[in-house]
Design a protein that fits this description.
Layout (H helix, E strand, L loop, with lengths): L21 E4 L2 E4 L3 E4 H4 E5 L15 E4 L8 E2 L4 E3 L1 H5 L11 E4 L1 E2 L8 E4 L4 E2 L3 E6 L5 H10 L1 H8 E2 L5 E3 L1 H6 L1 E4 L2 H39 L14 E4 L4 E5 L9 E8 L1 H6 L9 E3 L15 E4 L1 E2 L8 E3 L8 E2 L3 E6 L7 H7 L3 H10 L1 E2 L3 E2 L2 H4 L3 E4 L2 H39 L12
Parallel strand pairs: 5-11, 6-10, 18-23
Antiparallel strand pairs: 1-2, 3-15, 4-12, 5-7, 8-10, 8-12, 9-14, 13-14, 16-27, 17-24, 18-19, 20-22, 20-24, 21-26, 25-26
Helix pairs in contact: 6-11, 8-11
Length: about 425
């Protein structure tokens, strides 16, 4: 790729077009006092290097050494590997001051994103990474916002197709032009967007805590280690095969049959969800006289194969009333004779418990791909409380899941709000002319 100048994206019909106080540039309409600058003029760019692996003394120091696998968060406080002063001196890397923007320019993960973060302590970088030391280190947050806001456009402009390792054309990256407001407005924009970052981070922390709480509750409640008041009876052992019968998924179908017709439950729907999501189905043509098994409320489903034994027999439960729906051919169903011994709502969690998954793993057969035998599955023993206690456990875990869903929705909402703010603030479409406290 050459070094043709590239620019940040501009909407075709900005509300600022022709508006007093705005000027027309190669980027479109921007505020009169803003400039257009290439990324190469906003700061000094530095490359990295790797000290010799053969010299052990180079790798026994305390200087953080950044590789692409370290650039996962917005702020980088430490790295997996560290080098010594002699390691730094005997490599082409440099010691970057805190506040540098660290960008992965060569990696196997560049197809969808251009990873960038800000280091909070001095660090060195390897040869797959470039770093920009802003002329004013206080601008590092703003430059990171630019990378976040225009990530896909930067990637589209600078991406170089590779075989196993993809890369960014560094000269094109440096020539990428962006609108550049005056310092006070840059600081105000960062203040506003960081407020959204803090809100998102808080929601993510609450989500992680709630997910951990759910895992703890499942481990205690589904094993009988923790009981609700009023339930004291001993849990009963029963073989799964005593509770119902298995049935197969779709059969006799070819590629031409799929894409329209009747809904059927996909493999991934079962694999990803403890409860079938009836809004995430595919479609298949089924004739009036075909003998295909229809699913119904209360049915249990199991995946029959996987590349690892830990993922064999992932289970999901149908908790909705469905009129006509089928099951994919790579899974099988299990229909309970009644709900007097095992409640579907309880089975949803029990079949994904640590104890049950451990027993399933023992049944996985294969070398490069692992399979689950229906004959062996139905021999598994379940340890079940009375139905009333099953319902209490299911209600508790369902309430926790609703809280998790609410937090997930909150994160999505906040993230969408931030994207909208970035679109208007980083282009000058909306101005921040008042002091932000």
């Amino acid at each position: 790729m050459g070094t043709t100048t590239t620019t940040a994206p501009v909407k075709k019909a900005l509300p600022t077009e022709g508006k007093p106080g705005y000027k027309h540039t190669k980027l479109g309409w921007i505020p009169e006092e803003w400039e257009v600058k290439p990324l190469g003029k906003i700061g000094k760019w530095r490359g990295g290097g790797t000290p010799s692996k053969a010299e052990k003394s180079y790798w026994t120091g305390e200087i953080p050494w950044v590789s692409s696998r370290d650039v996962k968060k917005r702020r980088l406080t430490d790295t997996e590997l560290h080098i010594s002063e002699s390691g730094l001196a005997n490599s082409s890397s440099v010691l970057l001051p805190a506040g540098s923007l660290i960008v992965v320019t060569r990696s196997g993960i560049l197809r969808h994103t251009l990873p960038a973060c800000v280091n909070e302590v001095p660090m060195s970088i390897n040869q797959d990474i470039k770093a920009m030391v802003p002329i004013r280190l206080a601008d590092s947050d703003y430059v990171q916002m630019l990378f976040e806001g225009w990530n896909k456009y930067l990637l589209r402009s600078c991406y170089k197709e590779g075989t196993t390792v993809e890369s960014i054309d560094f000269e094109t990256l440096k020539s990428f032009r962006v609108p550049w407001p005056l310092e006070p407005e840059r600081l105000r924009i960062v203040t506003v967007l960081r407020a959204w970052d803090r809100a998102i981070a808080t929601a993510q922390q609450l989500l992680a805590a709630q997910q951990q709480r759910k895992r703890g509750l499942m481990q205690e409640l589904l094993s009988g280690k923790k009981r609700f008041p009023g339930f004291e009876g001993k849990w009963k052992e029963v073989r799964l095969g005593e509770l119902g019968d298995t049935y197969n998924g779709l059969s006799g179908k070819n590629g031409a049959d799929f894409g329209e017709g009747k809904p059927y439950i996909t493999y991934l729907n079962i694999f990803n969800n403890s409860r079938i999501d009836i809004n995430q189905v595919d479609y298949v043509r089924v004739g009036l006289n075909e003998r295909q098994s229809r699913v119904q409320r209360g049915d249990l489903f199991f995946t029959v194969s996987s590349e690892t034994p830990d993922e064999v027999g992932m289970a999901s439960v149908m908790l909705d009333d469905v009129e006509e729906m089928y099951l994919n051919s790579f899974c099988f169903g299990f229909r309970l004779n009644s709900f007097k011994v095992l409640l579907p709502e309880f089975a949803r969690y029990y079949l994904r418990s640590i104890a049950f998954r451990r027993e399933l793993n023992k049944l996985a057969q294969g070398a490069t791909r692992f399979n689950l035998s229906k004959k062996q599955l139905v021999k598994i023993s379940l340890f079940l409380p009375e139905v009333a206690e099953q319902l209490a456990i299911a209600d508790c875990l369902s309430a926790t899941e609703r809280e998790i869903k609410t937090l997930n929705n909150q994160i999505v909402h906040l993230t969408t709000q931030k994207r909208g703010l970035m679109q208007v603030l980083l282009t000058g479409t909306v101005r921040l002319n008042t002091q932000i406290q």
